[in-house]
């Protein structure tokens, strides 16, 4: 198969400079530039942008919708911080349908940070509220939806590597694009692809606060690896919702406090573009409690004709466990699952390890780790597992609000954890992005299945957040 190389029409590379003395050699890293550098301070409403937004200490600002046109590439370098402020002549409407800036990607987007210098998209600090205490979802700023995220429906490629994206989900205004309705929340990353071979890669990134789905895809080749999702969905919505024709891998991610599921996969009846997703080695905590529709909300959900491998996921204090749903049956002939690691702090949670809700066809797997109330503590280095979850039909307010991390939280596993060596490694990733290579800027790193349950591996090969 031919490899796909994404190259800008004009790439300028600074030449690596060498300086030597008798004791040492210093090598400066070559800077890669796509097109021309953006030289302003503000991404202005109604503007088109391409080229490179360069690293700098000072933040950039975004006041309105910005478009990357067909055939163009926008490359955002490490350490860039973009503060979305909306229309400054109408600050009182920030977050409303007429004033929630959105990136519209019709070409290619490359957001490439590093662990030490991530790329950040956020709002001003005075709007964020207190992220360290329990919040009522009705008033929590995380669910305000101040800006519109990234609409990639017409894109060729979108890459998010070591990115931080927060406070997304502003509503569509009048006359939205086909497939959306006025007033509905925008998805954090919407990729209902209109182009063949559309590709999404998300690696080592952090998403905080979305009103509905944080990521929604359709007919996309994808890889979502080693990322963290918190407070996704106010009263519904998934962290990652993969629709008809999505193919790839979702692995080594952490999901905390999602309204519904961490991962959802579905095709449509009679499809010729079957959804094929491997979901493995994810850690899913305290999800499913804000979904207002009965029988929904949990951890992992496969629906109509979706297929794939589902292994090694750690599901802790979630409303429901793995759910294979009927009457909209997934492709159970081509779904393989097992080796999930379950923990429940209450009898209601334990009763729903198999998603016993009406419509689920999940079956017990001998390889799963399951026990009674409080059994099989995964032994995180630091995290409170006590949860007054209420009942399946009436989740407690605490469960609805326990969806954040404290500064002392650490979900790595202790050396005595029962989750060590509970994973299954006898399968391979789908790796639908194997042929992607953005020369000098980015190449995907698709992690193989891990031997320990969940996202955090004893050998540090999994999630690093």
From TrEMBL:
Keywords: Signal. Residues 1-21 form the signal peptide. PROSITE patterns: PROKAR_LIPOPROTEIN (PS51257). The keyword Signal applies. This is Right handed beta helix region. The lineage of its organism: Bacteria, Pseudomonadati, Bacteroidota, Cytophagia, Cytophagales.
């Amino acid at each position: 198969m031919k490899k796909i190389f994404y190259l800008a029409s004009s790439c300028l590379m600074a030449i690596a400079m060498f300086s030597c003395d008798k004791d040492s050699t210093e090598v400066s890293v070559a800077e890669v530039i796509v097109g021309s550098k953006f030289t302003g301070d503000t991404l202005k409403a109604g503007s088109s942008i391409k080229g490179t937004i360069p690293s700098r200490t000072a933040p950039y600002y975004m006041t309105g919708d910005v478009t990357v046109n067909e055939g163009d590439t926008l490359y955002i370098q490490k350490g860039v911080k973009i503060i979305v402020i909306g229309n400054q002549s109408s600050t009182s409407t920030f977050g409303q349908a007429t004033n929630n800036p959105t990136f519209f990607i019709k070409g290619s987007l490359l957001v490439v940070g590093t662990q030490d210098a991530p790329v950040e998209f956020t709002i001003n600090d005075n709007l964020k509220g207190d992220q360290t205490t329990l919040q009522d979802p009705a008033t929590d700023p995380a669910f305000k939806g101040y800006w519109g995220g990234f609409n990639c429906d017409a894109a060729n490629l979108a890459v998010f590597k070591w990115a931080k994206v927060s406070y997304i989900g502003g509503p569509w205004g009048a006359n939205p694009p086909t497939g959306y309705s006025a007033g509905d929340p925008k998805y954090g990353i919407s990729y209902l692809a209109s182009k063949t071979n559309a590709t999404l890669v998300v690696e080592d990134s952090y998403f905080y606060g979305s009103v509905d789905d944080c990521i929604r895809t359709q007919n996309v080749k994808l890889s979502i690896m080693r990322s963290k999702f918190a407070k996704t969905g106010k009263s519904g919505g998934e962290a990652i919702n993969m629709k008809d024709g999505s193919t790839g891998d979702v692995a080594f991610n952490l999901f905390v406090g999602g309204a519904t599921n961490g991962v959802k996969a579905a095709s449509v009846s009679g499809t010729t573009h079957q959804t094929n997703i491997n979901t493995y080695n994810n850690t899913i905590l305290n999800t499913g409690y804000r979904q207002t529709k009965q029988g929904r909300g949990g951890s992992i959900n496969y629906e109509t004709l979706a297929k794939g491998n589902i292994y090694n996921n750690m599901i802790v204090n979630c409303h429901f466990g793995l759910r294979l749903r009927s009457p909209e049956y997934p492709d159970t002939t081509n779904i393989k699952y097992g080796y999930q690691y379950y923990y429940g702090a209450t009898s209601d949670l334990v009763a729903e390890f198999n998603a016993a809700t009406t419509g689920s066809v999940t079956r017990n797997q001998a390889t799963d780790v399951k026990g009674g109330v409080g059994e099989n503590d995964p032994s995180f280095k630091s995290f409170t597992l006590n949860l007054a979850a209420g009942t399946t039909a009436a989740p407690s307010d605490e469960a609805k609000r326990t969806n954040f991390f404290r500064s002392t939280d650490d979900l790595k596993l202790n050396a005595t954890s029962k989750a060590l060596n509970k994973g299954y490694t006898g399968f391979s990733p789908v790796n639908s992005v194997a042929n992607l290579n953005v020369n000098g800027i980015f190449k995907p790193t698709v992690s193989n299945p891990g031997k320990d349950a969940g996202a955090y591996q004893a050998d540090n090969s999994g999630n690093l957040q």
